[in-house]
Amino acid sequence: QVQLQQWGAGLLKPSETLSLTCAVDGGPFSGYYWTWIRQSPGKGLEWIGEINDSENTNYSPSLRSRVTISIDTSKNQFSLRLSSVTAADTAVYYCARGRSYYYGTTKVDSWGQGTLVTVSS
Amino acid sequence: DIQMTQSPPSLSASVGDKVTITCRASQHISNYLNWYQQKPGEAPKLLIFSASRVETGVPSRFSGTGSGTDFTFTISSLQPDDIATYYCQQSDNLPLTFGGGTKVEI
């Protein structure tokens, strides 16, 4: 059974860059889009973006100018960077296994444990 | 973006009751609709995908129906462990979008 374990800094100051990494264990890494989703009290669940093992990325239009998702297939890891954070970026950030172009699925079926990121001066 | 509207925002029911949650998409999404359960302090858990397919290991009291723009999620007999917030999510178009959630209480 696939497991996702994520880590990264939980407290940032405004204008800093959020950086999180997610390691995937116990399942195939290829054939999926690896996804970042965040959850804040004010905006609910919000899809941030995704990447596959060919480094093809898709980003939320509202965050595209500040987001970079990267992947390291040698380590079965993928990462999120969000620049110029503000208090509005305070949320729990989740990594997840998303749709599969190989298996023909469109579900988000495995999630990391979540990381609370707080932006405060 | 496709807007997902869930109702009701919250509900209270008794153990053994049938619980129904609806989700409406702002445009046609075929059957690209998933349902998640989230308990406090936990990540969402996939229950139903492709509108009506039950994820492996999920109890049979959970079910989903619908196609196009209107979808329904049902718990046939509410159990104490089902206390959670439930979300619908469309996977027809990027960006993926979620409903606002339905908090289920006993």
Keywords:
heterodimer, A: 121 residues, mainly beta, seven-stranded mixed beta sheet, four-stranded antiparallel beta sheet, 11 strands, 0% helix, 51% strand, globular, B: 106 residues
Describe this structure in words.
The complex is a heterodimer of chains A (about 120) and B (about 110). Chain A is mainly beta and about 120 residues long. Helices cover about 0% and strands about 50% of the residues of chain A. Chain A has no helices and eleven strands. In chain A, the strands form two sheets. In chain A, strands 2, 4, 5, 6, 9, 10 and 11 form a seven-stranded mixed β-sheet that branches. In chain A, a hairpin with a 4-residue loop joins strand 5 and strand 6. Chain B has about 110 residues and is mostly beta strands. In chain B, about 0% of the residues lie in helices and about 50% in strands. Chain B has no helices and eleven strands. Chain B is globular, with a radius of gyration of 13 Å. The chains are: A mainly beta (about 120), B mainly beta (about 110). At the A-B interface, strand 5 of A face strand 5 and strand 10 of B.
